[in-house]
Amino acid sequence: MEAQLKRMKGQKYLYLMILPAFISTILFSYGPMFGLYMAFINYSPGGGSFFHQFFTSKFVGFEWFRYFFTSGDFYIIMRNTLAQSILSLLVGFPAPILLALMINEVKTGVFRKLVQTVSYLPHFISWVIAANIIITLLSSQGLINKLLMLMNITEQPIQFFQNGHYFWGIIAVSNMWKDMGFNAIMYLAAISAINPEQYEAARVDGANRLRQMFHVTLPSLRPTIVILAILSIGGILNAGFDQQYLLQNNTILKYSDVIDTYTYRYGLQNGMFSYGAAVGLFKSVIAFILVVSVNTFSKRMNQQSLF
């Protein structure tokens, strides 16, 4: 105990540097959690102060959760959320790995920087601009329809935003396009940390560049891949908000509405604050269970985990 206190005293300036981040985390991340109580009451804003209305509202227990589970919206919202998240995961998770591997193999400095810049740029474009680009490309007179008709794949323009069956794929590809380059940075950083002697040993054994990729680079990336996979699966109910809200319309609402847009519409637009809080809390609890479960499974299978 004394040794630990002595070590902490010797590192007091490091603790002082951490203190502002610690305080801000408590204030802005944990402090607002008292609002989770709203999910268990029938809160309705009135003429009094917020705290008076909040703590004097009628306690209803799990009534809002029961209402969500038994409503006809539950199946549709969960179907859309899981479908969009799983498609985005299947398409978007391996894409930055492949991109990082390809960039790593490019030896020409100018071309490599060009590819990195072009692939990173979409991440820094707001979803407002990105959504307008996507809508323009997929409109009846957009580039995609013109190419499809030019190649005789279709005779008439496809109404991508009038048919809900296309929406899940549009979201998956849009997420991949926007985040692929930025997510590849983490894999490129992990690749740069690989000991060059491993590649030299592989070359001595007669391995070409493809074999070096499969037997040196990918095994070295496995810890990074596992950690990011745990986080991705844990956030599988975070299908997004901006892209769905900006790309959806009333015609395809049954396919585009996810938990976050549903919570926004009922919780804020319709004034059902307690109901919105209950739906949001449900999503957070499921995400926590998924992270712990996948982390435990990964630790037992390959001794690699997030915590």
Helix/sheet category: mainly alpha
- What is the CATH C-level name? Mainly Alpha
Shape annotation: flat
Helix content: over 70%
Uncertain stretches: none
What's the tally of helices? Answer: 16
N-to-C SSE series? HHHHHHHHHHHHHHHH
- The beta-strand count equals 0
Largest sheet, described in full?
Answer: none
**Span of the ends, CA to CA:** 24 Å
CATH architecture: Orthogonal Bundle
Q: Can you identify the CATH superfamily?
A: MetI-like
As a whole number of angstroms, the C-alpha radius of gyration is: 24 Å
Explain what this protein looks like in three dimensions.
The protein is mostly helical and 307 residues long. The chain has one domain: MetI-like fold (Orthogonal Bundle), CATH 1.10.3720. It is built from 16 helices and no strands. Helix 4 packs across helix 16 and helix 5 packs across helix 10. It is flat, with a radius of gyration of 24 Å. The two termini are 24 Å apart. The model has no long low-confidence stretch (mean pLDDT 88). InterPro entries: MetI-like (IPR000515), MetI-like_sf (IPR035906), UgpAE/MalFG_permease (IPR050809).
